[in-house]
Amino acid sequence: MEHPNVKKLASTKLGNDNFDFRLKSLLYLVEIENTGSQADASEKLGVTQSAISQNIEAMEQDWGIQIFEAKGKTRVLTEAGRALADYANEVVGRTFEVRDWLHSLREGKQGILKVGMIDSANLYILPSALSEFRKKFADVELHLVIDSSQPLFERLANFKLDLVFVNYIPVDERYFNVIDVVTEPLFLYSPKGLDAKTGPWALYPPGSITRQMIDHKFYDEGIDPNISLESSNPKILSQMVQLGFCNAVLPAGEASEEIAPLKCRKIAERRLVALTRKTSPNDTRAQSLIEFALNKCSLRNKTS
């Protein structure tokens, strides 16, 4: 929505010119005030005295005011000049502040990074990468969203997130960068006394990427699962196996230590990928988090 003063300012006439402040002219005025003379200001700024004089005179003509007046052999600010100098100090100071902030943002030292990730990434794959990121980018505000893959992708596509870690889903790679982070095997866990084919089963909910992989494998093997429970929480699925109630399909990293001996066979594999928009400017913070994740997953694979 347009600010109510925009049209007013755009059409305002003061003196012979439009409402207009030139940053260079304001900077000259600030340095004259700080150093005490145009000669000292020109030396500090590395410009000629005539350039400074022309800019000051242009402001006076544009605004129809007198900025300096003679006082003996020196020139001092008039009442209008003093008000303008106060304004110039604030504008120039704020401008340099924004410039420094943008520089820090470009270097990845400031700002907000909005990251989405699925449960498994948050629970056991990426915590060490997030910890490393916080150490290196202590002044970056990290906003995390935990959800399933498709909703996270939609938020990325709608500019609500900067980076997502999700199970691979087909995307248009003309518009999105796809970086493979880790590939996880999905294993069947079956308590003693339960049929490893008929169940009953505790599975991820319908519609999730992991469930789709499991359903495809079951279909290929002719398994029609008797489903007793569906949950996106791997701890609940593990507990159902531990209690002897159900079979489950889980990545080894999501299975509790108690059910590890009940691992039977590999059912499928899923890819955890990082997605970013190709239209976004290069973001040192997002790239660094991806690199941390790749390094941590590589070390994890070597030790597992």
What can you tell me about this protein's structure?
This protein has about 300 residues and is of the alpha/beta class. It has 3 domains: about 100 residues, Arc Repressor Mutant, subunit A (Orthogonal Bundle); about 100 residues, Periplasmic binding protein-like II (D-Maltodextrin-Binding Protein, domain 2); about 90 residues, D-Maltodextrin-Binding Protein, domain 2. Helix content is about 45%, strand content about 25%. The protein is built from 11 helices and 12 strands. An 8-stranded mixed beta sheet has the order 6-5-7-12-8-11-9-10. A two-stranded antiparallel ribbon has the order 1-2. Strand 1 and strand 2 form a beta hairpin. Helix 2 packs across helix 3, helix 2 crosses helix 4 and helix 2 crosses helix 5. The protein is rod-shaped, with a radius of gyration of 32 Å. The relative contact order is 0.12.
